[in-house]
Amino acid sequence: QITVYGNAQDGCGNTMNEGLIVIHGHAGDVTGHSMRGGKIFVKDYVGYRVGIHMKQYQKKVPTIVVGETAGDFLAEYMAGGIICVLGLNLKEGEKCNARFVGTGMHGGVIYERGEFLCPVEGTKVQDVGKRDMAVIEGLVKEYCSHFGGDPKAILAAKFKKILPLSSRPYAKLFSH
């Protein structure tokens, strides 16, 4: 386990395969780049291209939990894993400024507390089910165990999930 009592620079968790990183501040761009396993918890916000090329492998599910919001291109080319964005800094009805969320996404899931992210064409937004809520509940409780907060209050909000429409978003651009 790595605990950062402050902010993390760009590229934190690059090619992470397992373990835990807890950041008591914000994290820069490309956090979790090409993650294949492990968990990253960020108390505050994250920069651009977080979770780019994340991919789960067998039983390893890379997971990033963000307390506030994310920058542009969140989950770009994501092929697996979980990103959970809690939006704790947003006021009721406020949107996150992140653009191009889920560009090229072809696997995995993004959970958002509320509906403040702006996903691209090629993704779909759905209500979460019981199985999703069990995953989210575990992540929120773990987030609160690191940073404080009331899990019940956080979980009282409605969650949505963003999924890819296709496992091959660029198939029509290339011949078989």
Q: How large is the radius of gyration?
A: 15 Å
Annotated CATH homologous superfamily: Glutamate synthase, alpha subunit, C-terminal domain
Tell me, briefly, the overall form: globular
Spatial strand order of the main sheet: 1-2-3-4-5-6-8-7
Low-confidence regions: none
**Counted beta strands:** 8
**Please, what is the oligomeric state?**
single chain
Put simply, the count of helices is: 2
The percent of residues in helical segments reads 10-25%
- Structural category is alpha/beta
Specify the CATH architecture: 3 Solenoid
CATH class equals Mainly Beta
Order of helices and strands: EEEEEEEHHE
CATH topology: Pectate Lyase C-like
Strand content: 15-25%
Largest sheet: 8 strands, mixed
How many domains is the backbone divided into?
Answer: 1
Roughly how many Å apart are the termini?
44 Å
How confident is the prediction overall: mean pLDDT?
Answer: 93
